[in-house]
Design brief:
The chain is of the alpha/beta class. The chain contains six helices and 14 strands. 25% of the residues lie in helices and 30% in strands. Keywords: Hydrolase, Metal-binding, Zinc.
Amino acid sequence: MTVAGFAFNPFSENTYLLIDEATRQCAIVDAGCYTPAEQQALRSYIETQQLQVALLLNTHSHIDHVLGAQFVLDTWPDTPFLVHRLDLPTLRAVPTYAANYGFPQYRPAEPTGELVAGQPVRFGETELEVRFTPGHAPGHVVFYHAPTATVIGGDVLFQRSIGRTDLPGGNHAELIHSIETELLTLPDDTVVYPGHGPATTIGDERRYNPFLQ
């Protein structure tokens, strides 16, 4: 599995393509593309690389991570769209505030299935472990790929920082517990691809993240 990333929308949200090299199937994680140019960037990459979109996954459902979900479902029909059930209220609240955040053209998307901690997600020959990591959002999950020591981490752990917990459903103690039990238990060389900013490693954050000392 390889990872391709795009920074979309005014929040500089990281949308990821997880690519199964053996089959050229891919999973889109946290589709944040909003403008036509952003949408075209995602579509052009997928078409140029001759990828087959197999899944749309969300670590969580805050507005910046779901702005492009319906675009994905329109462009690649019948793509399964999976979120954790505890984040459905987060997703369904987005239309109530999207215009106030400057996204009047937001189009809501409805999931077709659920992500369940401990139940793997598969596409092509790739299998992702789903780990439940609430604290930033009630139904937040991360995706761990052990063979490549990779985590797609959403807004849980950042380079020298952690996710904010002042949004509805946030809980600082819960977030720290999630990091300690679901991320810091992974090998130090595990690469974390976060929802914002550059990639980091578990080892670096264990040693240098001021929120984890």
